[in-house]
Amino acid sequence: MLRDKVAIVTGAGPGLGRTLARLMAEQGAKVAVAARTASALEVIAAESGALAVPTDVTDAGQVQHLAETVHATFGRIDVLVNAAFPGTHRKNVLDMDPAYLARWREVVDIATYGTLLACRYVAPYMVARGSGSIVNLTSMSSRVGYAGRSDYAAGKAGVHLLSHCLADELGPHGVRVNCVAPGWIASDVLTDWMRTRAADEGVTFEDIHSRDTEAMALRRIATEEDVARAVIFLASDLAQATTGATLDVNGGQQFT
């Protein structure tokens, strides 16, 4: 689906970013991965043959260097996937101290401003070719608010509407901009959270897992591969007439 295309994945640390790089390479893409932690990029580069470019997505100079490096190396950029995960610390607004307020702003900067910067410096190469696909990872939290997650929700909601704006701006130049919005993703982190909730409630892990999955239409939690395949579809030529769209990958969790 991505044979001979050149793709950049930002936020390519352990987890989804790593899975994205691997599956995109398996689909024939030449992949460049970017994240702040160089050691994590080296692991990804070793297993998927990706070009590793350490980058802080909130630093305009570093993001510009990323775009220039990838274009100089491969001669083109066809796909940009913005997957930087800003994290969240689950704190109520009434409990936010000055240190946390600074962290709140950092989360929004990574999610929204980081996505904007990547688009700003990669899109011109796509416009020059008259084609390209940008896929931004948002979240179910970008449209459904949860207590204690205002930092993450605000950052991802910003990406959601930013994508609509950029789809309108770049569409006349042949560049598509779409979103993939995961819900929960099966991982050790999610499992640990479920175990913590089970201990707090005095029930078993299986009780919590069953309760959560029964609330989803598909009765299962999406995997990293599920999310990555949705990204690959939107990045590919199979989605040539799709822009400004959001593909939900949450097993039906959002509407149930």
From TrEMBL:
PROSITE patterns: ADH_SHORT (PS00061). The keyword Kinase does not apply. Keywords: Oxidoreductase. Belongs to the short-chain dehydrogenases/reductases (SDR) family. PANTHER family: DEHYDROGENASES, SHORT CHAIN, SHORT-CHAIN TYPE DEHYDROGENASE_REDUCTASE BLR2146-RELATED. This is SDR family oxidoreductase. The keyword Oxidoreductase applies. SUPFAM superfamilies: NAD(P)-binding Rossmann-fold domains. It holds the Pfam family adh_short_C2.
